[in-house]
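USER: Please consider what follows.
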Amino acid sequence: MMNKLKWRFPPGHGMIHGFNSAGIVTYAGDRIGSLTREIVQNSLDAKNPEIENSPVTIEFSLFNLKQEDIPDINNLKRAINNSYSEVTKLGDPTPRKFFKNAQKLINSNSIPFLRISDFKTTGLTGVNSNNPSPWINLVRSQGVSDKGRTAGGSFGIGKNATFACSDLRTVIYSTLTSSGEIGTQGVANLISFDDELGYKTLGVGFLSINDNHDALPELITLDLKFQRKEPGTDIYIAGLNQRENLVEEIITEVLDNFFYAIYKNELEIVIGNININSQNLQDIVLDYREIIKETTFELYRLFFENDVHIYKEKVIDDENDLEIRIILSDESSRKISMIRKPWMKIKDLSRFPIKYKFMGVAIINGDNLNTILRKTENPQHNDWELDRLDYNSEEQKEADAILKEIERLIREKLEKLHEIDLSDYLDIFGAEEYIPLIDPESDNKAQQKVEDIVKSTRAVKVSPLKIGNPSMEVIQGEYEIEFGESEDEFVLDDPNPYKEESKKKRDNFEMNLKKGTLKVTKKKEDIKIIAKDRHNGWYRIMINSDKNAKYHLKFDILDEQAAIIKDSLVIENAKVNGVNVSILENYLQNIDFNRGSNIIDVKINHHIYVSIGVEIYEIQR
């Protein structure tokens, strides 16, 4: 019956199919990455539930096929020639170049093909149906998807990733289902052209057995080294884009996007003579260490090393909704790989505060979570976009709240892991006599921890502060701790925290500040500021003094340009070297410094990370 297969290009009935098909163009920017994501997740979605404890296997095989072995090659040639004639009428050179190359390729003695076959799947059911089914949705529909709650694809345009990898825009499908259905059919995604009767075609042709575009009820074997004997699907990409490092690209994309699926023994990949499975995953990662992405190698560490912090969190349903894994490391991407069912990585969450040195992964386990997030996913499956739910404001709000909660939980874990218990490190700052039992090695480790936290401390010149008349010029000598790329916006806990009476006292104090005081300029290394417990507004300031003296200290919150945010900070509690001191709004008054290190603990009226400027005024006796 193979000779019944013919390329048929139905009439468009007024519809014009152009070269820049949205579905294909969507994947043109990342052809191999898109192909890998679409193929693998579709096969994982089609896993045969009756086969337990065995991974879905996907095989990639490169081969060349003689021109005459392509079914109904002459009609396909004619369609490509007609498409070229059509695009010569257009001003855009891109389709002309494409079809000129397609003409050359289709007339070659042999044509490069990529066969992608899956095993331990159900195959594509519905071969003999004209109603929506996995087969119809893949081969004869556009934008149609009928996948379940946790399935990977949801747009029905992912099939176009295969066409984006074909220099002929031609793909042939063949399937054997677990219920015994068999079918073979091809699709050529060209452009509308005039047929022999002068009618404009739809531009999409089908390799089928009749004008109803029914599939051939047989399996096709184009790759002479392969014959299907068990349920599954074979996809043949004709005229594969020639790429120098294709095998390495596929391996890189498989490991980056489906590392977790392989790790869980849900997926096995075969590329030529290279096999990637849960048993040899570690060896494969190390073998390809030089070409895989940094985040891929971090996934390897997060699942195979021992120094991993693991958290199970409830988001909407139960305690296993979300699993977070974190390793603290100075040499890291500072990103969280976001993975959802069927265990595909969607994106890297980044833009965390500079002080966080880590690598991490978040695995979305909950079925309801996956269902909601699937609706926000873009066609490339590499981001969650809330605007895709703008037709349903309630779902959009729910998805927004979920994404924010997931990120909050991640940030909460990172904050806890990066907090330091300062009571262990007092001896670093000149209090050895209070902790006599600490050994030098522990002391060095503790000091390194604290220094890592305050590495970003830098000296800045603060903008002039104008309060009343006369004004006070703030000069060099103020220091701040920068907490990096936090996306928290600074919002006053109280839009006007200063009561009028207290503010007058503060203003009077500032007008008299220069009388009897000397502004002190400190070196960078003499002042360090640490967020001791930012959840409750506690900060610790360590100041080295070269003598015993009395001081006034002024604290301000600074913006990104190191300008003072006026009336933004109120000190609620404070101790200097363990002794309670006098507070006036954002000032500590008449405090005693000892020669050497002095420790100031202050509780401010904000519970987010902020940049704090400190001014020091020595009281002249």
